[in-house]
Amino acid sequence: MKTVTFDKVTLGGFWKNRFDINKNATIPTVYDRFSETGRFDAFKFDWKEGQPKQPHIFWDSDIAKWIEAVAYAITKCPDGRLEEIVDGVVDLIEKNRDESGYFNIYFTVCEPENRFTNRMAHELYCAGHLIEAAVAYKNATGKDKFLRLMCDYADYIEKVFFDEDSAKFSTPGHEEIELALVKLYEATGEKRYLEMSRRFVDKRGTSKKDEDSPFYISHAYDQSHKPVREMENATGHSVRAVYLYCAMADLALRLGDKSLLDACKRLFKSIAEKQMYITGGIGSTAYGERFTEDYDLPNDVAYSETCASIGLALFARRMSLLDPDSVYADIAEIAIYNCALAGVSLDGKSFFYVNPLEINLERYRKNKEYYQRKDNLLTQRVEVFDCSCCPPNIARFVASIGDFLYTYDENTVFVHHYFESEAEFEGIKITQKTDYPNSGRVIISACGLGCRRLAVRVPGWCESFSVNGKPFEGETVKGYAFLTAQNGESITLDFAMECRLAAANPAVEADIGRVALCRGPIVYCAERVDNGVPLNNLSVSARLNPSLEFDEKMQAYKIEADGFEDGSFGELYRTYRPDFKPRRIKFIPYFAFANRGESDMLVWIRIRE
Amino acid sequence: MKTVTFDKVTLGGFWKNRFDINKNATIPTVYDRFSETGRFDAFKFDWKEGQPKQPHIFWDSDIAKWIEAVAYAITKCPDGRLEEIVDGVVDLIEKNRDESGYFNIYFTVCEPENRFTNRMAHELYCAGHLIEAAVAYKNATGKDKFLRLMCDYADYIEKVFFDEDSAKFSTPGHEEIELALVKLYEATGEKRYLEMSRRFVDKRGTSKKDEDSPFYISHAYDQSHKPVREMENATGHSVRAVYLYCAMADLALRLGDKSLLDACKRLFKSIAEKQMYITGGIGSTAYGERFTEDYDLPNDVAYSETCASIGLALFARRMSLLDPDSVYADIAEIAIYNCALAGVSLDGKSFFYVNPLEINLERYRKNKEYYQRKDNLLTQRVEVFDCSCCPPNIARFVASIGDFLYTYDENTVFVHHYFESEAEFEGIKITQKTDYPNSGRVIISACGLGCRRLAVRVPGWCESFSVNGKPFEGETVKGYAFLTAQNGESITLDFAMECRLAAANPAVEADIGRVALCRGPIVYCAERVDNGVPLNNLSVSARLNPSLEFDEKMQAYKIEADGFEDGSFGELYRTYRPDFKPRRIKFIPYFAFANRGESDMLVWIRIRE
Asked: In chain A, what residues touch B286 (CB-CB under 8 Å)?
């Protein structure tokens, strides 16, 4: 099974709008913030002790992800000025790298004596992102200098970690290089890089050096508590976890490794069935930004980092190649339209790092001792963070969103998602006309399929589905409906897209007695700015009675629904009697929250029959 | 208006049982723990640097409260051995006090150079408790040595704080001496002591020295943020607050001070109408053990200290003398039967310091970073604490519970509470035959009232009330029904005592969509040990349909009521549909929680109509 990469896809509609905002606002704004904070200048290697703007251990990765975003954006939309900036950075990398091939700003400029001694210091993580950027830039421009530099660096890493085993640790404390090396293998054809990835992955959780290295919380925090093939549950820092699982899936595909695939399936289930917010967010606590326990999904202290949700979507996309089950694209879709997209403002210029499912300003103020972690208390989007992994990550993600659309082999083209788009690959041309995610109608036509069938995903949220106006009665396998398409024939798919209320498993204590309003793949939330009163004094009616209004800025529907507001009274306590005023409640897509100043927000709202 | 003191009251029924447990189990067990921890030996003043069991700044007060409890207990039930122990302590006080009259273990043995320099070091707080103990012991035994020693100490305090103004601070960081000095005045007739109390109270919040002293959180923490007469809201550490308010009420009564009375009324309302748990607990956070904001009453992190609830009852009792409104006895009753009584186990041998309204072991474990304060996470009763103010406090409180029963003047005897009891005072004899708090029927008879009427409190929880079988149609003023009783005539009062569900003001976010089961003055809770499943998966039915079973150990009814349990399902999320299994839910009185090992507990349970 192969992926149709984003460069083969021309987007329209919802995603074209997002692509343009990303290219015209997000990429420039991240550039400006990174310039102001000294991240670009750091590549000059001229920082001296006592000066401001000391390079940070993860700055290389911030710029690398920004370059990757630029590469994807200019593939579809060339931009000489952006290319010039990247070329300048590449020149500085060439100029300042070590003669060994090693390149790391912090460990050359600030702590040269400590190269590859500190497992927690993101050194290989930075290398991985630089490699991803180099591959992307080569693919976008044909220029291979950056890629050659990174091959040299990878060769040096191979020498240090595998030939000599001379580093103070065996595997990175923050995974990333494993999946990057698979990309480097794909870009160069060098099997050594795939083999390096496999060795890093297989060594994980088995190395005495790593076991003796410092760790945060436990070895499960960085997925080093056991060999990866023995892992049953997703554990630890959620970004690290899903980056590792991406690499495991990459290797399982390329090596035909059944035990690795089985581990990936277990870990995916552990997330999707036990540890994921309904928004596709993962990581239930700011303490370690990590998975905690099954069904532990508190809403106001959710970590639910943008990067983690992106990583989950990337993991799910890889799983679609290994196992043609719609659950993977379903989960990718949830993450894409909700938690990941919530990480960037509608204008593309400000960001969330943490994406809670409830903001309650009064509760935070009253109980500030219990909400001490500042990074868990962001109630306004900001333009840049000290730890600024998420802004360039969402930028590269949106710029390459077309990657998610199709996979294919000689028998089938899998249609995983519904984007207004045209795609051309291997002599095949597929067109989708759709207002998805706002409408469940998709008119799809294909030329050049030959004997291939189209396998269209029936979204997990969809309860009835018709083709060309008739209920679909053909073959459905693992959530994909198999269709035969005549050359150029338009097929109209109708996925019934009703407003619906979702309930969480009763083991999720935070969601007991509550529901989340959803429509299609979009999870909704209520904001106080629309509803006036404390949101927990509202309950939605099970009868719902929704009305929809399209919002241009959100490019999605706002929803009003029937609900109730608790009656107020003067006493502190009184004898209970039912006391609710009917009223309408306003909802907006979760991805659009916090775009109108600071306001309470709530996904899981009380239900009243 | 005068109080009928406990020594005039002979208890039966519920409180006789509690008195006996207190005398036979609590007082000895607290003695044993205080002996083991070195608190008694500390009175020998022979601790040396480097030895274990260094005297703590509040140990004097722990022993003083224990002596006070002994004094009250032996008043009704003489005990030569206990008296001998107290005499031994008094001899050591006499032997080891400073020639100036000063007595403080810590500031003589450990930091003699720092006498009266540290406002936060509980020095005057200890003095206050010693004075209270001395008064109690004199009243109980007629022996006046302890009282004389404490008069000397009070005289020395007057010299240092008022004649010389030579201490480093003007008023105590922890109030207590103010109310103790009023008791010393009552015991000795020395107006100087009443005047000292007034001066401490009036100086509070006005002193430059205090303003410049170190403080915890803010000057509101120890009620020094403004002059007491200007206070609108109860603020800060809740024990400190209510001890101050007790003294203010004492002074208002004895000095006929209207502005002080007005402040007391405002502060009482601030607690009872905005800041009190339904159990009579106060203090919404472990951080500062303090009042926070109006309607901020989280259940699982409630501080709700036993001492604070006792202090609230003491404040309410004083207010009943100033303002014949039943709200004061209502609040006292809530505190007495719920939060205060929950502070000691049914066998009298172990204690809670903090009395939360919810224990959720799984939530604590999952979110341990948010529940870091160990003293807020006690889920089992313990025999002694480092900070052991509560065990001897509940002991002295139970031993003198008769204090709450009656007040009187020349026209009226106010019957504030209903205890199976006989009381004799000023030629009056009143008998109550009742199973209260388990029954609302009280047969009351009085002799020697003369022209006085009986004013019986109609409890705030009571919705219908009859006298001798007929609905009461006479005069009710501020919640008291005025009755004329013939000499020796039995009057049968029936306060309809139904199971009822209480709701909290919708501004109390933690209680939204929830109710508390109550019967008479008793608030109920559900424990997991009785109900099997996570308590938040249960909801009680508004129809209730209760059945009662008397429990000998609790001396109260357990209740079973109709409710529902959430249906379980396998998915993490699914489309909402109502899914509840009817079932019975078991409740026990809140005061009896945590007597059968560690278990989840819940007062505010979800409601379903």
From this structure: 369
At B542-578, the pLDDT tens digits run: 999 999 999 999 999 999 999 999 999 999 999 999 9
Please answer yes or no on whether A367 and B578 come within 8 Å at the CB atom. Answer: no
Condensed to tens digits (0 to 9), the pLDDT of residues B90-147 reads 999 999 999 999 999 999 999 999 999 999 999 999 999 999 999 999 999 999 999 9
The Cβ of residue B95 has, within 10 Å, a number of other Cβ atoms equal to 10
**Contact flag A542-B578 (C-beta cutoff 8 Å):** yes
In whole angstroms, what is the distance from residue B254 CA to residue B236 CA? 26
> Known catalytic residue: B565?
no
Is pLDDT above 90 for A388?
no
**CB within 8 Å: B503 and A542:** no
Nearest 10 degrees: CA dihedral of B547, B566, A573, A606? Answer: -160
pLDDT digits (tens, 9 = 90+) for B491-522: 999 999 999 999 999 999 999 999 999 999 99
pTM over 0.95: no
Q: How far is B197 from chain A (nearest CA, A)?
A: 33
User: Is the CB of A367 less than 8 angstroms away from the CB of B296?
Assistant: yes
Q: Is the peptide bond before B437 cis (omega within 30 degrees of 0)?
A: yes
How far is C-alpha A371 from the chain's CA centre?
25
Sheet with B441-447, side-by-side order of all strands? B9-11, B421-425, B428-434, B441-447, B490-495, B465-467, B470-471
Q: How far is the alpha carbon of A24 from chain B, nearest alpha carbon, in Å?
A: 37
Owner of token pair 């996309």: A317
CB–CB of A575 and B274 under 8 A? no
Question: Residue B534 carries which DSSP code?
Answer: -
Task: State the smallest CA–CA distance between residue B84 and chain A in angstroms.
Answer: 47
Strand locations in B468-570 (E): 470-471, 476-477, 480-483, 490-495, 499-504, 514-519, 522-527, 538-541, 547-551, 556-566
Residue B533: closest C-alpha in chain A: A507
For residue B268, the chain A residues in CB contact (below 8 A) are none
Q: B503 to chain A: nearest residue by CA?
A: A576
CB contact under 8 A, B572 and A502: no
Nearest chain B residue to A498, by CA: B575
Please give the Cα distance from B179 to B202 (Å, whole number). Answer: 13
The pLDDT value given to residue B372? 66
What angle, rounded to 10 degrees, do the helices at B123-141 and B177-188 form? 30
* Distance from chain centroid for Cα B299: 19
B244 close to B178: Cβ distance less than 8 angstroms: yes
B518 assigned to active site: no
CB contact under 8 A, A606 and B512: yes
Determine which of A17-26, A230-239, B237-246, B345-354 has the lowest per-residue pLDDT on average.
B345-354
CB-nearest partner of B366 from A296, A542, A572: A296
For the stretch B327-331, contacts whose Cβ atoms lie closer than 8 Å and that sit 24 or more positions apart, written own/partner, are B327/B272, B327/B460, B327/B478, B327/B479, B328/B268, B329/B404, B329/B416, B329/B417, B329/B457, B330/B457, B330/B459, B330/B460, B330/B461, B330/B479, B331/B268, B331/B271, B331/B272, B331/B276, B331/B280
| The one catalytic residue among B176, B289, B527, B565 | B289
Rounded to the nearest integer, the mean pLDDT of chain A is 96
Measure CB to CB from residue B296 to each of A366, A536, A542 and give the nearest one: A366
**H and E: helices and strands count for chain A:** 18, 26
Q: Flag whether pLDDT at B85 surpasses 60.
A: yes
Active-site residue, from A68, A132, A289, A565: A289
- Out of B307, B339, B389, B462, which one is annotated catalytic? B389
Whether the per-residue pLDDT at A522 is higher than 70: the answer is yes
Look at residue A178 and tell me whether its pLDDT is greater than 90: yes
Q: If pLDDT is split at 50, 70 and 90, which confidence band does B377 have? A: low
